[in-house]
Amino acid sequence: MVIPDYYEFSSRALIMAGHDALEQIPGLLLSMDAQKPMVITDQGVRRAGLVDILLQALDSRITVKTIQDDVPADSDLKTVHTLAGEYKKYGCNAIIALGGGSVMDTAKGVNILVSASSDNLLAFSGANALTHTLNPLVAVPTTAGTGSEVTRVAVISDTDNLRKLLFTSDFLIPDAAILDPRMTLTLPAPVTAATAMDALSHAVEACLCLGRNPLSTAHAHEAIALISHNLLPVIRQPDHKPGRLALATGAALAGMAFSNSMVGMVHTLGHAAGSVCHAAHGACMAVLLPYGMVYNLHKTQPLLADLLLPMAGADVYARTQPADRAQKAIDWVDRMNQRLHQATAGAHAVCLREIKSQDGKSRVTGHLLPKIAHTALGDGSIFYNPEDLDYDDCLMVLEAAFDGAPLDPSRVKKG
Amino acid sequence: MIALNHFLCRTKTAFGTQALTHLPFDLSGMNARKPFVITDQAARDAGVHLALARACRDTHLALGVVTLTEAGDLETLYHLFVDKGYDSIIALGTGQVVQTAKALNLAVCHGPERLRSPAGPGQIKGPLLPLVYIPTHPETGQDTAGETFFSGHCFVSANLMPDIAVITADTMLGTPRTAVLDSGLSSLATCCETFAFSGNLFARSYAHAVICLVMDTLLPLAQQSDHGELLCQKAGKLQQLPLAKLAHAAAVSGYIQSNLPDLKTRQAGAHITAIHPAPSAALSSGLCMALALVHLLENSKDTCPWLGKLLLPLTDAAHYAGVTGPEQPDASVRVIRELLHALSETLPQGMPKTLDAAGLTSRQISEMSDLLTYVQP
Ligand SMILES: [Fe+2]
User: Domain holding A396: CATH number?
Assistant: First the structure.
């Protein structure tokens, strides 16, 4: 086992994972003297009836002061400030974040403001600008993907200034992550597929990228096994509770892994595609993951070969020649995308061109690829990628991924 | 999958060559300006506290250092801490140093009277002051677990886990080989049991990493010593890194212990140490745990859910996948037995490799059968 010269691993969220995990929340809030929570969620989550399930799990010891369901698909600065005002107005002393990545990030932003009694979120942006423990925050994810329920990161859009603000601090790790399969049972198949592939990309990048360490790798391998073995069964049988719990657990483990090792070019390009085209993050990750693996193959061969075991199982791993295992792991991800494409009647995109908005229009168009490539160069995750990327490299990968064409490894500049 | 899994690790692990130089930054992130450093004579004699002082030079930190033997009882430490206005604690050492640091933290935050009666889970409310743990030896996981023992009382709270475990070769001191074995075998038993029996996937992921660290480190370290029972008094460069890796494994095994307090091998280790006619350094609690582990795995082959898969962290992916599924449980136990045998070879007087050989009667062994058999929940 190769150990880096220096690394840190921190994952301070209390994790409660199980079929009735929501019922643990009242005791948990009481133990933190936080009986007056605000619930932050979005309208989709509310329409799906998940707020009702949450409220039923709470008991008379807990008084939900207000339920705020106006979080947009992309967390933004104005929403954070508005919700911080509501928190104070209703005299809340904790937050329950019920939703996906945007809700989690919004809740983290609100918690920064209300804990510091500040009205200037910008003052806390960047790395480690927080110096105090925040108010209690309980994260209840309703997708199994982003891992935000356990990460030390929040991304909040400053739409007026066309930028995304990044916040990183151990203090942003929620106090508790509640993984309850009831929260993902009604997730549509394409969303289940895309968010799970996001989690898979977290785990794979955690294993390959420069910040990897023994603890993040162990968490990531477990995550890969859980996602690999449970994703297709859950797509075929959406109400499969053990499978849903396994995917939620896999996403949290992947979150713990990448929060400590960082991610690389799959996210570099995916973040850029998200901010330029508003393409769904999970869909971008699914498409770009095999490209990132091919691009870095020459620098990560043994690490990639190791991934074949949790992905495909011991039999396939043993049957595959050692020299072929890395390529087989890449092929496995490709095949998983193809299977998800079939299982969702084509809704799961296998190339960037196929990523659609809700009204069926293509999100990523060919003429935007240069802009995405340019934007990617400003993303911090690029520094953790095993192989260097410049503008031409980014564009080359994006062009291949746009059509779903294979990436020619001989065109990768090997630094 | 089990109905409900909990996992909490409050501690940030910082491992490696720059771990000490990062510490001032971490302390400032916790608003700590005046840390109270508790250490022991061996660490002080070796000048380890000077490495810490160097790392904090030209920073906002004002360190105070006390050596446990000269500092006297906790009351003295308490008054020193309060009178001088310290705001955080650094435990530079292992064992007694850390137990004292945790007790001091309780006394400062909850009043010295808090230490007069034990406290179980949930009884210690509210945060404690920042506590940094910098081990000078590999230990057995107790230092990072959320518990402390003081004046015959046990105090349990996740808040007693250190905020940061700073683990670096720079602070590793020469360690008796028996202590190395105690640490490595204790971590191995804790984590093999966790991996083989627990459905808690978070605990199992940590356990996986620990088993790999121990399997990489323990035997080579035991074989390096050319000083009989002792590794060199001041660990040389060759020993320092593997010692730090073992200390890392022990720290993580402490996180697991905090979350899985009922591990059978730990209970068996304590039980055997208590009933054994002549407990000695050669029959450490870690060795007792490892011997109990072998019994536990052997007795539970048919009921142990992940005994076959245990072969993966014990060896590597290629080895694991090369053994057929039905053969994997036996292969896992064999790897542990072979390790015990190889470790025994490094000791001039050898070491027992079974509970019988350790001197336990068959009656004593059968009396503890519930600790040596896994029953499916
Ligand atoms: Fe992601």
Answer: 1.20.1090.10
Q: Report ipTM (2 d.p.).
A: 0.95
10-residue stretch averages of pLDDT, chain B, 377 residues long? 78 92 91 95 91 92 89 86 97 95 96 88 86 96 93 91 95 87 96 96 97 96 64 60 95 96 94 76 86 95 92 96 95 98 90 90 91 84
Interface of B with A in 84-123 (CB under 8 A): 122
Give CA separation, B191 vs A217, B206, B226, B250, B372, in Å.
16, 8, 29, 10, 16
Phi, then psi, of B167 in degrees rounded to 5: -120, 115
Nearest-angstrom CA–CA distance, A16 and B37? 35
Same domain, A145 and A243: no
On whether both A138 and A199 belong to a single domain, the answer is no
Domain endpoint, select from A122, A151, A183? A183
Both A320 and A388 in one domain: the answer is yes
Radius of gyration over alpha carbons of chain A, in Å? Answer: 20
Domain, as residue range, for A158: 14-183
* B332 chain-A contacts, CB cut-off 8 A: none
Asked, for residue A7, whether it belongs to a domain, the answer is no
Identify residues whose C-beta is under 5 A from ligand 1, the ion: A 198
Does a structural domain hold residue A92? yes
B-interface mutation test, from A2, A7, A8, most B Cβ less than 10 A away: A8
Total number of domains in chain A: 2
Tens of pLDDT, residue by residue over A215-241, are: 999 999 999 999 999 999 999 999 999
Q: How far apart are the first and last CA of chain A?
A: 24
Asked if residue A9 belongs to a domain, the reply is no
Q: From B213, which residue of chain A is nearest by alpha-carbon distance?
A: A1
pLDDT digits (tens, 9 = 90+) for A61-114: 999 999 999 999 888 999 999 999 999 999 999 999 999 999 999 999 999 999
